[in-house]
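Reminder: ligand-aware prediction takes two inputs, not one.
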Amino acid sequence: MSIQAPKGTKDLLPKDSHKWHFLENNFRNLAKEYGCSEIRTPMFENTELFTRGVGETTDVVQKEMYTFFDKGDRSITLKPEGTAPTVRAFIENTLYNDAQPTKLFYIIPAFRYEKMQKGRLRQFHQFGVEVFGAEEASIDAEMISLSMRAFSDLGIKGLELNINSIGCPSCRKVFNEALQKYLKANYDNLCETCKVRFEKNPMRILDCKNKNCKEIVKGAPSILDYLCDECEEHFDKLKSYLTAMDIDYKIDPLIVRGLDYYTKTVFEIIQKDITVCGGGRYDGLIEEIGGPSLPAFGFAIGIERLIMTLEEEGIELPRENPIDLFVASMDETSKIQSLKLVNELRKKGLKCEINHMKRNVKAQMKYSNKIEASYTIVLGETEIQTKTAKLKRMSDGEQFEINLDNLKEIFEKLV
Ligand code: ATP
Ligand code: MG
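Here is what comes back for the chain with magnesium ion:
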């Protein structure tokens, strides 16, 4: 048997879990500041949800899904992203009957069968936000502001916000025709994937990573010259709202984000050439999945990439003090006392440990040092008889005489 986690997966080890707790709390609080509530959807969904909701021509659906048949012969897929399941839950639970907009956030694992390379896992995690029911550009601006703060609050610098508008189906139709006309002359030089895109979704050629395709699209027409009045007004408002919030941005007409359902605003946050967040407006998706015709906006942040960025920037996340008090004991009677003492202190919220090994007092003190306990008490016959003990502060070795019956006093010393 191989004692190895499946390729592309990672254990979260105790030495790192504090980082995840900190980041999760931070994101939860931040999302709440913007009026978002948490939604939790299942780890797997019916496959059809993703083929429709993510789009049949996307890499995710064509190559990356973990799909299998369950014992009832249903095609099931481990969720590769959070938007489609959130939309499904919104429709199924008729959340559209509540006061709109519906502002949701989630923290999820996502599963994609990808080629292994730096920054790519097969189980990774995302922070995401989805807002349903608001058509105004002010929500785009607020959600972009939220996503930027998810990085800047942590002290991450050098963030670049790139925005674009990819219009609505009607202005995009005209643009796609102009784009096809431009690309026709270079059709033979496009990569194989883009040859397929040329027919199905020509706009996606604009963000192809292939070198030849990148060269070809340099002179391509810009979607921004084709926006209809409504889409242009939406984009202008977004820009003025971002400016009002002092958020710097760059306009990049090459950002398209794969899906047909994306409309108007799309954006990416880049830090040192790595895309750390992506999102946009997808006014067609709720209806496409079978719900009412309602607008929507969302984004997702890769948590592992966020942590990678923190490490590269040398930003340390605050660590919780592991243990407040270690109680060493010399014999069985004092061990019973140590159990009683920590039981009471834990109820008051202190993190305590006692000895569970065949260790003498010296070895127990060594252990207390190792686990970085803030304080240590040694209990023996004398301590039990006199009901007093010495509370040792491990940082400087200073000792305080305490009364073992006076929990309040011990507690006050410890906090
Ligand atoms: P990429 O272009 O890097 O493949 P994507 O467009 O597939 O990204 P999204 O679907 O927008 O990514 O997911 C949002 C975020 O999730 C990404 O910006 C990235 O930070 C993270 N992410 C996506 N795929 C992976 C993966 N396989 N491993 C780790 N993080 C990932
Ligand atoms: Mg991808």
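The domain at 323-414 is CATH 3.40.50.800 (Rossmann fold). The CA atoms of residues 54 and 84 lie 7 Å apart. We will return to this case in the review session.
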